Amino acid sequence: MVDLRNRSTVTEFILVGFEQSSHSTRALLFAVFLALYSLAMAMNGLIIFITWTHPRLNSPMYFFLGHLSFLDVCFITTTTPQMLIHLVVQNHIVSFVSCMTQMYLVFCVGVAECILLAFMAYDRYVAICHPLSYAQIMSWHVCMGLVSTAWFFGLINGILLDYMTFRGPFCRDNHIENFFCEAPIVITLSCGDPQFSLRVIFAEAIVVLLSPMVLVVISYARILASILSRASSSGWGKAFSTCASHLTVVVFFHTSAMFSYMNPRSMHGPDKDKPFSLLYTVITPMCNPIIYSFRNKEMKGAMVRALGRTSLGPDIVFVASSLLEWKLLPPTLAEG
């Protein structure tokens, strides 16, 4: 038992983040993260606008894609603006309530995105392996139900994991060795025994991260089996590269989250936690539009037409067309 007498209760936390970096390094990081955040907001915002307003993109694939971009906007906004502020100011203090709220939003949106990525893989499986029954299987009510399920589990898991993190009193060191309130780090600052909370979060991470990953793997394995059984050998390379492009974000997101929530604390440290935290909170939301959309002909055409109607005129259309023509990633299955 921990003697809590004569121990003050923590009412605020200090996010260490990049505080120990030099002034020039922080200035460089501010410019880089501001550019990444602006790019992610612009690209995801454009995808949300197009998928929800363009009549030619009225299909389950684009319906899910619009919700994925919305989740990415929410996800990157929960951590990056605060990090940008802390890179330019000396005060890195966050209140107890602010830390709890930020952690809840990260859990809620992160869990919802894990589940939605699995549903997107299932949607591609139905479209490719059962094309004649696709409209009946992936009806509007089914799509709404799947998205609602992702949000429901995100909301419920956020409450559970937030409670497990903050259920005990905090009267130890209040320095969080990261740029946002991450659960495993905050739990170790509790006065009581953190092992029970860590075990619950570990078990929850197994269910939340591995279960959708299994569905993704099964869906794409069946997609590959279906394509290889009826395509010529010349199309094998395209089929494998197509699945690889869709799986890239899933692998990035899941592996970085698994490192943060499924590894023993002895394997953690500021130098190891921050890169993985940046990967799934900043880099992945910025890369999702590129991987899932910008190599899609219908999406490219809709983006160029949407930008062409703006007051910036043909110049921005030319720039957008040039950017979208970069051979960054292999084409998607939907491109055909």
TrEMBL record:
Its main location: membrane. One of its GO terms (molecular function) is G protein-coupled receptor activity. The chain crosses the membrane at residues 27-50, 62-84, 104-122, 134-160, 200-223, 235-255, 275-294. Pfam families: 7tm_4. It is a multi-pass membrane protein. Keywords: Cell membrane, G-protein coupled receptor, Membrane, Olfaction, Receptor, Sensory transduction, Transducer, Transmembrane, Transmembrane helix. It comes from the Eukaryota. It is found in: Cell membrane. Belongs to the G-protein coupled receptor 1 family. Putative odorant or sperm cell receptor. PANTHER family: OLFACTORY RECEPTOR. This is Olfactory receptor.
